[in-house]
Amino acid sequence: MVVKCESRVSGKVMVVKRIKKMPSVSGDASDEDEAGADQGFPVRYLREACLLRACNHPNVMKLEFVTYHEGQIELFSEFVGLNVEDYISSLSDEYFTRNKQKHEWVLQLGRYFMKQVLKGIDYCHSIGILLRDVKPRNFLISSDGTLKLTGFVLARFSLLPEEPLTQQVVTLSYRAPEIILGGTYPVYTAPVDIWSAGCTFAEMITGRTLFEGDSEIGQLLKIFKLLGTPSDCNKSFCFEVPSYIELLPQWQPQSLSERLEGLCDEGVDLLSRMLLYHPCSRITARDALKHPYFQGDHSLMKT
Amino acid sequence: HFHALLQDEVELKKQECTDPVTMIRSIQVVLELCHSVGIMDDMDSEVIALSMNYLQRCSQNEKLVQSFRKSVLLPVACMLTALKLCETYAVRICDLVPLLQPFQVDEDEIRDAEWAVLEALDFNLQPVTTSRLLSCVLDLAPETKRNALRDVADI
């Protein structure tokens, strides 16, 4: 449960994430998953709190403090505001229709937001945090237009050498192909966040989810239809290529500029670099911030 | 070997945990204990290093040390926290209690110690990641060499 609250002492407005009481040893088995069974402080919240505590950046939500009383955990964070997904949903179709003045504003907003998304991701990667759940819902918009990254439940400190990790990360629509194709325990690292950021970018511009599959195979089909079925060379990014891949149609890559109407050439180029199949070829957050798409003054005009 | 370790523990029990050497020895005993009953075959060096780091930081907090008179509680809590962060082994508190029988600790005491450790460390539990290590190296490098080193780090 997440609720908004105000400190009686400082007057500061915060959000508090309440996690239900941990069961006793003889407690209800159904509660075990949520509360971490008989492991004391639940692992997932320990990790979330620890990761948020490790971050200190204007584009990452700040964890104020954690309380733990009689088994109930409360994570107090700064209050930010609406998330990007809800904000996009609140805009009318006119904002996403080409040649309309409002669409021009959305294109500017996309650039303005995307720069902050990449700054937040770059910071996390620079301190060794793999986010694993980058999506519009996990970016909150503050009253001054600053975007703040949240949603650290699936995040973790990255490993070197890389070790197989769980496949059950990243919301399906934003999940990188190397995770989907990587078997039960795929090996993946920071580029999975860049793929998700690319999907987020496209969604900000079009108002629609870029790849919306209803299953893992459905998701792959959506990706392949737009970006083309990967060649043999590109398949080398997979940990263990499933046999059904050979049975899929050989789609040719479609034009991203057609799909993202109105987006400038630099923007399309950046997106295409974020959505490269091979993780090693995919642009890094730091290099993306140096991309021509972000050069020059791109302050947001008012509507 | 297991029984010999238990004898060691009984001796340790008599000491207070204000002595860092005792604390480090305590955590070694705990790790050995866990290993001897086969619940931590995958125990890796990162867990041990983190446990030691937490223990060292906790030992500087006099109030915390004073509040846990049983010498084994803080090491166990530090180890439990490190295990969770590294996700090496999902250890259950109820499994730890019989292993620590000579110390006569119960589950609630371990839970309390765990929270006290987390609170004392203010959730600053992050391991030294490669990225962080490289940043430190870059900071220490002479100004003239930084760009070249940064290029190497990027690769």
TrEMBL record, chain A:
Gene3D superfamilies reported for this sequence: Phosphorylase Kinase, domain 1, Transferase(Phosphotransferase) domain 1
GO CC terms: cyclin-dependent protein kinase holoenzyme complex; cytoplasm; nucleus
Superkingdom as given in the UniProt entry: Eukaryota
Swiss-Prot/TrEMBL keywords: ATP-binding, Kinase, Nucleotide-binding, Serine/threonine-protein kinase, Transferase
SMART domains in the cross-refs: S_TKc
Enzyme Commission number: 2.7.11.22
Spans through the membrane: none
Domain Protein kinase: 1-294
Pfam short name (any one): Pkinase
GO biological process terms, semicolon-separated: G1/S transition of mitotic cell cycle; regulation of G2/M transition of mitotic cell cycle; regulation of gene expression; signal transduction
Top-level EC class as recorded in UniProt: transferase
Protein name: cyclin-dependent kinase
Native species: Guillardia theta (strain CCMP2712) (Cryptophyte)
